[in-house]
Amino acid sequence: MRKPHFPCKILITAGPTHEHLDPVRFITNSSTGTIGYELARCAQERGHKVVLISGPSHLEAPKGVKTVRVTSARQMKREVDRYFPASQCIICAAAVSDFRPARFHAKKNKKTEADTVVRLIKNPDILLSLGRKKKGRILVGFALETDNLLKNSREKLERKNLDLIIANKISLQDSPFGRGRFNYLLIDRQGRDERNGITKTALAGIILDRLEKICYVMLYLYILKGGMT
Ligand code: C5P
């Protein structure tokens, strides 16, 4: 396994979040956590120090990776904020639920004959909040879009202040969840790169290659700047 010249501290989020209505029912997003876990395993094997913050997933924690299990978006944010200051790179691969029920019922809601309305309120956008305070850190996000893939992903790269975004298309016929071969668009500040028919294991390697390259460029610029002052 290839080792990087400069091992980094990498924080990764993975999996869905569960936003409970009561102890039994919750709303969530489709996600198995595969890409986040592949990234954590691959980064650890390359010699990086990895912390994985995972929503509910059946996947086994990668060997040697500090894995913190959470349930909700708010719990995920709390753990991300805890590890963020000591991290140099953050990869947000989690499919965080954008909304949560306004009220949590400690006891299971009884089924009634009448229809029920559930009021949803916004969850914090973890990646957006990191983008606002990232300073010299490298930030990577994902975008799952039903249309205007390039335009929407570029807009997200800017709005969330990211260094790299990995985009792929979703439709009812074409689902990118779990294992298989998928098409991805990698967009950074230099341009874009299309990768078709690749596995999530291969994608994890490609993302880490990019990340390491950005690290070297940033380190080079930092040394250059230091040399000039
Ligand atoms: O805006 P959108 O949800 O499409 O952005 C997706 C990216 O933002 C992913 O990298 C995801 O992990 C992250 N995200 C987050 N917190 C949220 C929603 C999305 O970190 N509440």
Q: What does this molecule look like?
A:
The protein has 229 residues and is an alpha/beta fold. The chain has one domain (9-97, 119-144, 155-170, 180-224): CoaB-like (Rossmann fold). The chain is built from 5 helices and 12 strands. The protein has helices spanning 34-45, 73-83, 126-132, 149-159, 200-228; strands spanning 9-14, 19-20, 26-27, 49-54, 66-69, 89-92, 99-101, 120-122, 138-145, 164-169, 182-188, 192-198. It has an 8-stranded mixed β-sheet, with helices on both faces. Strands 2-3 form a two-stranded antiparallel sheet. Strands 7-8 form a two-stranded antiparallel ribbon. The longest helix is centred in the C-terminal third of the chain and has 29 residues, at 200-228. The chain is globular. The protein starts with 8 loop residues before the first strand and ends with a helix. The mean pLDDT is 92. The structure holds cytidine-5'-monophosphate. Cytidine-5'-monophosphate binds next to helix 3 and strand 9.
